[in-house]
């Protein structure tokens, strides 16, 4: 909706004016926008808000003193719009009313203000701190509501404080000068931040988050684990309240710290303490009083900076020592080794160890004895060749030794290692494994962990194949997410994960040699993303739980076969974004209730598919007309099969009087079990290529070729029609509703009729080939009651030759046929 319409709805909500009509229009607008991919507008809702709701707002506030507060205005709006469109009584000196509007940027503010408006451009530090605390409190309310725990705001307030506090430690702390290069640091991604929060235990609900799943659609969550859903909700809420936004870049100008609360706190060095090395290692009990430690170092030890942040502790909690040690981008190797030797053994409570982008060549064995370690990041450690040996103290850990990281949830690394210790891959609690650019990795045995939910493999993985044990191990595990990016192996050209019992998300990007991909029968699979698969020819997503199909998939350059049979959850298909179409495409919309049942308005989006050749429709129970606009499709459509469309009335019904199109390429048309079907195509629509016509079990069909308004007189021609089959059409009276007109069908050879007792007259045929008669197979009683127009000018009966069943096979001629052989 337009910003003005959103403001009208918000004001009406605060005044308690929203009624059932508003909620009905809102639901209709959201459904229409969703199923039409945003093509349909919101005109009906806007008219209701501006013409019915706005006058009610004016009547409610008229002659009253009021305060209007608009927070986080993201788009410019003139102040005159508040009176002209929102119909608010003016806020002036004599009315006593006031408007207070806060914008998300200076640009929005400057474009919105009018002459005479008072603008408060700066606040004191104390004012900003009050606003930050208030925003955190309000965000906690929204978070608790989003996860369905409105009665536990206190818990989610603690969660919001912890998550916000920890994010400040991960972000760069000191502001850079205006001419500094800010691209030297690595931006913290959304997924990394959520993993850190989860490893600290911040995202654990006080009770099962019953409504998290219900809010997935509203916040656009694509992950399937509850932890990631809650993390996404928190990040979205922080963004809405201007607490933080990703990617985060430290402020370089004096006015930039007010962009978000995180910018302000980082710029002024608040929350995070900065200690020297002496204070770190020589003060008694120092490490016991620290919650999270981050060390930043350039090329020399003199440049190192310690950032210390105590955990957010309430009066119900006690400190448990240091739980996070972040050494990312620590580039001075001697200091790093000395640091690990001295400090790591003292951190028995450590749950996060970040060694990413460090020059380590081997991993210290003390890492594998951190009993509480939940996240280990080795991303960017390009010199690391072994995950087992460490020579600084002479201690070693062989690949077969048992490690004690049984609580490890997340392992993220990109190294030169050639193997992964079996004890790691079998870790019972390992939740997520991210392998980035490990070109030397010979074998991947990472699918055996009984708790492993997510595996992400990215980089130029040229030497390995998917293990054959993947299906066997996953059948008793819980793998839900498999992402592969940059698979350049020419050894494997097919991926087949048919019937995988737990996988929910599958991503395959930049795999130029994969030709066949089958995920058929993965009944929990909801998200599929496929890109840069230049060789993919066949894709089977049948019997999955996919709700949406990305537009990139049907547009893959070499895709010849796309199967979507039995995908009952598929709610929309990107028809409007199709650039090409597979040679074979099967879409089986067999959903019931609120599934894939398109109404007429939404169905219009699918009509203009210029290159569609084969079309199969089944169980689309809200569809009344298969085609309404067929100008471009009629040139390419060759085979159509329609089955079990309960509301279908016409196969083709043009939108306008003069919009009738021809079906120049249509060869085979099959319709069955459409109980409300009345007519097929207008008489004006030419079918020059039609070879077979089958209409079965359509009990309401009255005619096949019907008269269209403003139709021009034509001689109807079916030049290559060879066979027509009509079965169980009890109301069918004529093939063409102008019974005296002749049809030109020189190639017509066979007519099969069963259960069409109202069909008393066959169409007149032009005598292009007088020696060839159409063979008619039907009940003897029906044949005897046919009416013929034989006179001196026409030889109606001579155009047809009976080929009736034997008398003993015609005992119960009017029995209803319940099934038939195809």
Describe this structure in words.
There is one protein chain. The protein is an alpha/beta fold and 822 residues long. Among the domains are: 3-112, no CATH class; 125-271, no CATH class; 272-430. 21% of the residues lie in helices and 17% in strands. The protein has a 12-stranded mixed beta sheet. Strands 20-22-24-26-28-31-33-34 form an 8-stranded parallel beta sheet, with no helix packed on it. Helix 4 (81-84) links the parallel strand 1 and strand 2. Helix 1 (3-14) packs across helix 3, helix 2 packs antiparallel against helix 3 and helix 6 packs antiparallel against helix 10 (226-240). The two termini are 51 Å apart. Residues 176-185, 209-224, 312-316, 389-402 and 591-608 have low confidence and may be disordered.
List key phrases describing it.
about 800 residues; alpha/beta; 12-stranded mixed beta sheet; 17 helices; about 20% helix; repeat; Disease resistance protein At4g27190-like leucine-rich repeats domain-containing protein; leucine-rich repeat; Plant_NBS-LRR; At4g27190-like_LRR
* Rounded mean pLDDT score: 77
Low-confidence stretches: 176-185, 209-224, 312-316, 389-402, 591-608
Shape: flat
**Amino-to-carboxy terminus distance:** 51 Å
Our count of helices gives: 17
For the report, how would you describe the main beta sheet?
12 strands, mixed
Please state the CA-atom Rg, rounded to the nearest Å.
Answer: 35 Å
Structural class: alpha/beta
Give the strand tally: 34
What strand line-up does the widest sheet have?
Answer: 3-5-4-6-7-8-9-10-11-12-14-16
Beta-strand percentage range = 15-25%
Give the oligomer, counting copies of the same chain as homo and different chains as hetero: single chain
Helical content class: 10-25%
Keywords: Leucine-rich repeat, Repeat
Organism: Oryza sativa subsp. indica
Pfam families: LRR_RPS2
Domain Disease resistance protein At4g27190-like leucine-rich repeats: 661-762
